[in-house]
Q: What sequence folds into this?
């Protein structure tokens, strides 16, 4: 069985919060650690509401430096210090924007007793973890903006009964996994014949942005594409002007990329209910859901 | 009838939020305007939860520049800009700390389309409004910290029947109010004989601080003293060390100042329920209540 990947929507509103929706942040929990994507104001409290320990956060991936996506960093890092964190914390921001984050960390000269490592990302691998990596890809917005994809590595599941029969044991497992075939007692054995390859899962996070071909390409076979849908179709001109997406544009991205599921989020505060947006998106891409604060998806 | 003064507790936790309590902020609503005391992270959403329009905020009074009391300014001012505010916004901070607020305003180069006026306060009148003033007074904490008292001006209520009989009319009302006595048809009339003087109401806000004599003095006859009570008595040493107050120390301040009512707030996140703190405070000062998020007091 593959390990569960848990995705928790901490905040799903655009620009300003509403009674029901906090500012953008999505947590991905994997192998006992948490990775945050964006960190709008109030994220630390949303973590508490969803019983996620802030101490388990290994890294924060910021799409762009607009306040509504990043102000939550200020409070979160202070709470981590109060709670005596010692592990370093990595914060990824678009390359060239690293300095913009500093004022939120230093403005009151708070005592931060652990290392905060700010890293600039460009298109490519942003971080490599145990069994997964996070890739950054360029989005199209009014300031430098990157989307992220959380990609699990492929895994090999051995048929242990078969292996035992053939005499495979000990270090031979890693050898056959690495080389694809080995000789056992003079006989050639291929990896395929004794193991199944399990593909890694992929979650793509894209906000704030116009729909792009790159996002579709990255979303190929993704279990989940989380894409902004700030407006309904009637505001397409506004979406173009402000470099956001409509619900059906988000759905087009999912469709072109053959993602398995689309979650629309980052909805304008004007939409009390996401039903209109959801209807428009589903016309284009059926397997669409609308995010809400506290929504959990387990893969 | 005097105009109602509505006090709304938006956040009542200390240092870091809890599931139930946001970071410190108290709103005072008076004559259609709102005055905020402190503005912890998430305050803008707490305003929404309590149906207070952020556009009605005239001024924000910051006690001190520790992040948990001020980070909410960053998101709030951006939402006000998105909502097309044109009125200026005054933000009061301890004198000498004005520059520390700037990074929260400018870090992402957000477009703020109204004036933000940062004013340094020292002991004395910080702001004069129509029918009230806000006074600042020094507190005792690890960084420059000021408490604030919202003081309504005294009002005069005329006995109009009596006035009519004596021939008082038109501009004579303001004349007698100003001078204390006038001559009407050759006869001396004192203000006292035709009017009652209604004392202005007073609300005192004191956090973060050790108990001080100044706070007691300012609280004389206050309708309400809102005082921090970070710890229970068993942590008195810690309170001294960290320059905070215990619940019974807060109650001593209220007792000495003969305040009419005490609200303890800014309770450490370790207290899931404030009942222990409340019990200790009430032993010293009976008319004590513990604040909770969303608590409303109307005077």
A:
């Amino acid at each position: 069985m593959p390990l569960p990947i848990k995705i928790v929507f901490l905040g799903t509103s655009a620009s300003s919060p509403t009674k029901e929706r906090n500012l953008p942040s999505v947590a991905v929990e994997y192998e006992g650690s948490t990775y945050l994507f964006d960190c709008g104001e109030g994220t630390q409290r949303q973590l508490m509401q969803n019983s996620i320990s802030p101490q388990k956060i290994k890294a924060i991936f910021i799409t762009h430096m607009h306040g509504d996506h990043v102000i939550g960093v200020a409070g979160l890092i202070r709470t981590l210090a109060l709670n005596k964190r010692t592990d370093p914390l990595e914060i990824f921001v678009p390359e060239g924007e690293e300095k913009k984050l500093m004022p939120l960390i230093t403005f009151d000269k708070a005592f931060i007793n652990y290392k905060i490592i700010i890293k600039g990302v460009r298109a490519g691998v942003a971080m490599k973890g145990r069994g997964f990596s996070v890739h950054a890809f360029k989005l199209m917005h009014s300031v430098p903006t990157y989307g992220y994809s959380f990609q699990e590595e492929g895994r090999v599941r051995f048929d242990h009964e078969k292996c035992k029969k053939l005499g495979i044991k000990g270090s031979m497992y890693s050898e056959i996994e690495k080389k694809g075939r080995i000789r056992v007692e003079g006989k050639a054995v291929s990896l395929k014949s004794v193991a199944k390859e399990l593909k890694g899962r992929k979650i793509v996070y894209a906000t704030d942005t116009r729909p792009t071909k790159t996002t579709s390409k990255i979303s190929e076979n993704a279990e989940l594409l989380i894409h902004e849908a700030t407006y309904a179709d009637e505001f397409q001109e506004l979406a173009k002007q402000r470099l956001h997406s409509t619900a059906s544009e988000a759905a087009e991205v999912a469709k072109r990329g053959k993602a398995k599921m689309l979650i629309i989020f980052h909805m304008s505060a004007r939409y009390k209910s996401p039903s209109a947006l959801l209807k428009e998106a589903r016309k284009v891409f059926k397997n669409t859901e609308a995010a809400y604060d506290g929504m959990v998806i387990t893969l």
